[in-house]
């Protein structure tokens, strides 16, 4: 039962045969190791007795080395002991001309008939051929890391086997396929001592290829994140330029004045962002270098306290994802980013760097304990707080209406957790959310609870308090009072998406519902939009 021919009657599928042989080898390797351990203990006891009996002799049992003359000459040339695995499994030396191992009859028939289309991408014949060769290299020659010359020999053997022209392109195609397969096999044999030796030798801090910088690219805009701006009247437009100029030096303004000007220039700023580059936006509105104003704009757009949300959700998600201590020296938000990148197999340098960003999408750059947020290789804002840094990183996608990078699953999960929004989740992220029982709608539930707590019923005992609250300025982005302007002019923003029906995931009725793996990403827009909120404020 140690080869394909013997088990073909029981297991007809070739791929399953290879899996069976691989598992069988693990079992027998464990048994051989146990036997060798027992034998070594017996030899050790015997050697101690012999050493005592021959105290005056210089010969010791452990000094005796087997001579190469004791073995057949062919054995010394073709085999080597697997000493690194602690067993007695013999592996052959790689030959000068590699031969493809035996394959199933139906696959051999396809080769003879010239049905090479069945060896193309996503065909089972191609997978069987690569599986067979990789299994042969690992179990017969112990080749987890073939040399470039050996890769050429194997690629040439596959091309000759398929009766294809022996060209460089044909060889490269099969070399790439085999390299990918061996990379996966190395991850499956992570406990192999040979692989551990390679990793300890080459996997050092700072080693490996540097992350490729995408210098000539810009972060793509997402038109579905654009807010519909209701036109304002001429009187407001003439006053906007003056207020924008006042915001050029935000450091000289009082906090309340600064926030008031920021709210009043909100519609003009949103329209400007839609049509300009990142560098032009920062030059026109230096206020984006202030984290307070960025968080205020997120509140105007989405009614979300992003700085508070990141502090509430970070430790909750960490407790559900982390099963063993990891990155314990980092702060909680940075640790969460690293853990998620490890879960999804992403490069942390695309989100967190020590010197310069490698991608035009939002990136954190940590220099001298100060974290800078970059977009399109332009520094936007800086902070000393890791919590605020991660919140600002997520905020950039809303502020500049950016789409997500195709491989940014970590950012997608963080965005979903902070916004209670599942529209941008991929299937792999949904699987992790379901497996780890992460409540994406916890922040929405917290927001609804806060609104309920702030609702005070009107009664004679608190009528004076209610009157005082009504006298306070509650309009967030009005430029004039409701007496000076009609309600249509005060209504500056509506949370409707341009060109399509809005997509959202309002699950306020069931916050604890789990996210289905194959859930449709399209849903009905949340009826509690900023438009209704602004209307209620303006009419008050």
From TrEMBL:
Biased segments, Low complexity type: 448-466
Domain of life of the source: Eukaryota
Organism of this sequence: Adineta ricciae (Rotifer)
This protein's name: Uncharacterized protein
Record region (Disordered): 445-475, 501-540
């Amino acid at each position: 039962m140690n080869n394909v021919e013997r088990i073909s009657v029981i297991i007809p599928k070739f791929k399953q045969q290879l899996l069976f042989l691989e598992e069988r080898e693990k079992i027998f390797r464990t048994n051989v190791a146990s036997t060798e351990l027992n034998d070594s203990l017996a030899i050790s006891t015997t050697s101690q007795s012999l050493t005592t009996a021959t105290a005056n002799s210089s010969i010791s049992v452990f000094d005796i080395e087997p001579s190469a003359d004791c073995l057949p000459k062919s054995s010394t040339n073709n085999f080597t002991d697997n000493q690194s695995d602690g067993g007695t499994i013999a592996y052959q030396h790689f030959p000068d001309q590699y031969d493809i191992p035996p394959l199933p009859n139906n696959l051999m028939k396809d080769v003879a008939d010239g049905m090479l289309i069945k060896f193309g991408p996503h065909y089972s014949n191609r997978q069987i051929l690569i599986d067979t060769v990789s299994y042969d290299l690992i179990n017969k020659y112990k080749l987890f890391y073939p040399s470039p010359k050996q890769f050429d020999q194997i690629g040439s053997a596959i091309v000759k086997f398929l009766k294809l022209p022996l060209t460089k392109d044909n060889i490269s195609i099969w070399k790439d396929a085999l390299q990918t397969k061996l990379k996966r096999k190395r991850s499956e044999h992570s406990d192999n001592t040979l692989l551990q030796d390679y990793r300890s030798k080459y996997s050092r801090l700072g080693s490996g290829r540097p992350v490729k910088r995408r210098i000539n690219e810009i972060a793509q805009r997402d038109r579905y994140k654009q807010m519909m701006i209701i036109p304002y009247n001429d009187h407001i437009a003439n006053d906007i330029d003056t207020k924008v100029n006042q915001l050029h030096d935000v450091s000289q303004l009082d906090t309340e004045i600064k926030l008031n000007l920021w709210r009043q220039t909100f519609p003009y700023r949103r329209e400007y962002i839609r049509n300009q580059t990142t560098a032009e936006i920062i030059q026109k509105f230096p206020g984006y270098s202030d984290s307070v104003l960025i968080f205020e704009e997120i509140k105007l757009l989405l009614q979300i306290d992003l700085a508070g949300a990141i502090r509430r959700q970070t430790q909750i998600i960490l407790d559900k994802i982390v099963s063993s201590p990891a990155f314990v020296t980092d702060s909680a938000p940075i640790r969460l980013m690293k853990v998620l990148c490890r879960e999804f197999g992403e490069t942390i340098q695309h989100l967190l760097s020590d010197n310069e960003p490698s991608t035009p999408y939002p990136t954190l750059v940590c220099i001298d304990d100060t974290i800078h947020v970059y977009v399109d290789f332009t520094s936007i804002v800086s902070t000393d707080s890791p919590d605020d840094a991660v919140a600002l990183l997520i905020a950039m996608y809303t502020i500049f209406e950016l789409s997500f990078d195709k491989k940014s699953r970590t950012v997608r999960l963080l965005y979903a957790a902070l916004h209670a929004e599942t529209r941008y989740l991929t299937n792999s992220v949904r699987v992790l959310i379901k497996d780890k029982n992460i409540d994406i709608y916890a922040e929405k539930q917290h927001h609804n609870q806060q609104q309920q707590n702030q609702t005070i019923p009107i009664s004679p005992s608190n009528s004076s308090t209610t009157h005082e609250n009504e006298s306070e300025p509650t309009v967030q982005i009005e430029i004039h009072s409701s007496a000076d302007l009609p309600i249509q002019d005060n209504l500056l923003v509506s949370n409707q998406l341009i060109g399509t029906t809005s997509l959202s995931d309002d699950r306020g009725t069931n916050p604890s519902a789990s996210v289905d793996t194959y859930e449709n990403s399209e849903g009905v827009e949340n009826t509690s939009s900023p438009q209704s909120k602004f209307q209620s404020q303006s009419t008050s």
